[in-house]
Write a structure and sequence with these properties.
about 350 residues, Rossmann fold, 3 domains, six-stranded mixed sheet, two-stranded antiparallel sheet, 10 helices, 12 strands, about 40% helix, globular, vWFA_dom_sf, coiled coil, VWA domain-containing protein
Length: about 350
């Protein structure tokens, strides 16, 4: 009898399992301090390694999984950028967002008594408005005519061809989510940024299912709008807190949202430490409350209020200086302040939005 030994082949997981691992890795990005200058690809590979280790997936290499995700189009490179920045495929994004939402254990949204149901909700729906592309995670209440037009023209139907028609429903909510991406969100041994990023993902799914709108802004030295496919790759920056820029970005976007109920949700762990001066330079001061920075920030809050935006401030740090300014900010904007533990942030925000 002859015995033959051979090295066991490493088998790649099936697609469903691959997407589960990828979604979990995307949720892990940004949950702890990362090497400065690390690329999105390096960060994702490290997150995949931690995910595989905790899941007990032996014999599978993170680098090989990452190559497969890129080869099959689940992870793509952002077009038109010199630096290598990645984005998630809409289906993978929705899977990660749904996992983030389920982790919050928040009950599903309910339509208020006497209100017309929103598009996609149970109940009557009068489809007489304009059409728009269908979004991943929405019910397939498609407009057949507009959806089939591309098929008639080229003989095939793609996901991006699916169209839904707006109609009568309850008053929509437009939420500008302002995430503090300054360095302090990952310092001092506390994970504040991870829960904030997972909240953004959960809101993407929670609001999108009801036909509401979400606009995410990451602010540090500047304020940058974040496309949905980039939400998993958000990270804290080695920079200051330019709250005024975030409030201005929220006002500019909310003004374009018609008759929707306009809400701005500010997630921060401190007081503002940066402002743009008239000459275009960014003035910074991280030591205590600065009168120049505070005046500019309060003025931006007042302009947001005049534009019809409601402001909710969620403070993630037990700091007297930050608490004092947050209350002043809410007073000027006629908003509300909530001091919450980072791990309870997601449930607090979704509960607050559900109550109105």
């Amino acid at each position: 009898m002859r015995v033959r030994y051979a090295r066991a082949r490493r088998t790649a997981p099936p697609t469903a399992r691959l997407l589960e691992l990828a979604a979990e890795a995307l949720l892990r990005l940004g949950e702890r301090p990362e090497a400065e200058g690390a690329s999105d690809e390096e960060r994702l590979r490290e997150a995949l390694e931690r995910t595989l280790e905790e899941a007990g997936e032996t014999g599978v290499e993170a680098q090989e999984l990452l190559r497969r995700l890129k080869r099959e189009g689940w992870i793509e490179r952002m077009p038109g950028r010199r630096e290598l920045r990645l984005r998630a495929h809409p289906e993978l994004l929705e899977l990660a967002a749904l996992r983030a939402l389920r982790a919050l254990d928040v009950p599903p949204r309910r339509v208020l008594p006497g209100a017309w149901p929103r598009p996609g909700a149970d109940g009557p729906h009068e489809p007489h408005g304009p059409t728009r592309p269908w979004r991943w995670g929405e019910p397939l209440t498609l407009d057949p005519v507009e959806t089939l037009k591309p098929w008639l023209a080229r003989g095939e139907l793609r996901v991006e061809d699916l169209r839904v028609r707006e109609g009568e429903g309850g008053r929509r909510v437009a939420v500008a989510l302002l995430l503090d991406c300054s360095h302090s969100m990952v310092l001092y041994g506390a994970d504040r940024f991870g829960p904030a990023k997972r909240l953004a993902l959960a809101l993407h799914h929670w609001l999108g299912r009801a036909g509401d709108r979400l606009h995410t802004v990451c602010f540090h030295d500047v304020a940058e709008p974040v496309p949905p496919q980039r939400l998993p790759f958000l990270r804290a920056q080695p920079s200051h807190t330019h709250t005024a820029a975030a409030l201005e970005a929220a006002r500019a976007w909310l003004r374009r949202q018609g008759d929707a109920q306009k809400r701005a949700v500010l997630i921060t762990d401190g007081h503002p430490t940066a402002v743009r001066r008239e000459d275009g330079r960014i003035y910074k001061n991280a030591w205590g409350r600065d009168p120049e920075i505070e005046r500019a920030t309060l003025a931006a809050a007042a302009r947001l209020r005049r534009a019809g935006g409601e402001l909710d401030v969620y403070l993630l740090a037990d700091d007297a200086v930050a608490r004092g300014f947050a209350r002043e900010l809410a007073r000027v904007a006629r908003g509300r302040v909530f001091e919450v533990d980072p791990e309870r942030l997601g449930r607090a925000v979704l509960t607050g939005l559900a109550r109105g």
